[in-house]
Write a structure and sequence with these properties.
13 strands; seven-stranded mixed beta sheet; disordered N terminus; 210 residues
Length: 210
């Protein structure tokens, strides 16, 4: 699948939505990944756009097409060695979409995420010298920068990253991050408009207490 269809749908709609990326990462480099895209606060607009079939001249996938794309992701991800517990779900009553899988290494994590956009192979996550790094590469169409009328809606839309570990965090490079009381979970949130103009604001480098 060229791009995770629900992410593309998020960007095309002038609606309020939430994108939440969660990772539970362990010392042995295995972990669990979750992506939730939630339109429940604007399901009326979302449903109308899907029924209309397009927004601003851009084609919006039908419910059947979205189901097929998610099924294709499951099929592609299942072929990657080290990936397991692969699942997707959709709720067309509230327009909430979920993607989950487990991985046995950082390499596997990146390989599965690269099935989302097969045209671009990148390292989304890196772990070297005791540091866990996120290199943000959200597939947001750059042409939206020209659509100033969408700015207010995209400022309401949020992207949240939640990364949990089995050891205490010592330092977090991104100054907008928040650290849990346990010092084992890092939170980072930005609005989609800002991420659209600079993906790197979702980058992070996390080091751990020896």
């Amino acid at each position: 699948m060229r791009k995770l269809v629900v992410i593309t749908l998020c960007i095309l709609l002038s609606s309020c939505f939430q994108v939440t990326e969660k990772i539970t990462h362990r010392t042995n480099q295995s972990g669990d990944y979750s992506l939730v895209i939630d339109f429940s606060d604007s399901w009326v607009k979302t449903r109308a756009a899907i029924l209309l079939g397009e927004v601003d001249g851009e084609k919006i996938p039908s419910e059947a097409e979205m189901k097929q794309k998610l099924a294709q992701f499951r099929n592609d991800a299942s072929k990657i060695k080290g990936a397991s517990k692969i699942s997707t779900s959709y709720d067309f009553s509230n327009y909430i979409f979920k993607l989950n899988f487990s991985y046995n290494s950082i390499e596997t994590l990146n390989a599965v995420l690269n099935t989302v956009d097969k045209e671009t192979k990148v390292d989304h996550f890196i772990e070297t010298n005791g540091k866990f790094e996120r290199i943000a590469s959200y597939p947001i169409p750059e042409k939206l920068r020209e659509k100033k009328e969408k700015k207010e809606d995209l400022e309401k839309a949020k992207i949240t990253a939640v990364y949990s570990f089995d050891k205490e965090v010592q330092t977090v490079k991104n100054e907008n991050s928040k650290l849990s009381k346990s010092k084992k979970t890092v939170f980072l949130k930005h609005n989609v408009w800002n991420v659209l103009n600079d993906n790197s604001i979702m980058n992070n480098s996390i080091s751990f207490t020896p």
